[in-house]
Amino acid sequence: MTTNKLWSFAPLQNLLHKNKQTAVMPYEQKSIQRPTTVVPTIVLKAPMPNSVPTHQKLSQLILSGRQHHPQAVGSFVEQVTAGYYAYEQRTEWRTCALAAAYVGAFGPNAINERTGQSMVNAGLEPLIGYHPDMLTIAGPPLPINGGTAHHVRSVSATIQALNDNHGWTRLAIARWLAQQGL
Question: 3-state DSSP: the chain helix, strand, coil percent, rounded to 5?
Fold first, then answer.
């Protein structure tokens, strides 16, 4: 055991200890006994219950996000003013199928004028487990030049082509993606 000297600042009104045998003067020096051996502390880290990544289906995100905004065709997101009279005018957003997935993941207020396809793809990647521009998929049979063809493109490009060029609804795109396991 080692002895360390510490200073005690006893208040003036408490000049006597509880045993009332010795008076303690202010600024009296006391000795404190401290152990010299150090007891090791063992910290066990339990795995966090939410640390295992759970991936969501892109089709489910599109289904939930399509309920918040009308569909945009020919643009990724589109800001429109609805209402004829000035007192009933309001600004609302239209979203394509991929932007609807972003809304399904992050809520209807996640869309703004700076929302772009690269931001959406990067935001969806940790949630769905792949980057929509990096995973290639054979698209559905589409009419091309009098016949049908399956295009092999990225998931993002396939969704964009179905939404903009072939007139598919976001519901139809989500159902097709669900059939593909995405």
Answer: 30, 20, 50
Q: Are 99 and 169 in contact (CB under 8 A)?
A: no
Helix (H) / strand (E) containing 94: strand 90-95
What does the pLDDT look like over 115-160, one tens digit per residue?
888 899 999 999 999 999 999 988 888 777 777 777 888 999 999 9
Contact of 105 with 56, CB cutoff 8 Å? yes
Taking alpha carbons only, the member of 159, 174, 153, 79 closest to residue 120 is 159
Whether the pTM exceeds 0.85: the reply is: no
Question: Tokens 């493109």 sit at which residue?
Answer: 153
Instruction: Give the span between the Cα atoms of 12 and 122, in whole angstroms.
Output: 67
Cβ proximity of 89 and 82 under 8 Å: yes
Burial class of residue 97 (count of CB atoms within 10 Å of its CB; 0-12, 13-18, 19+)? buried
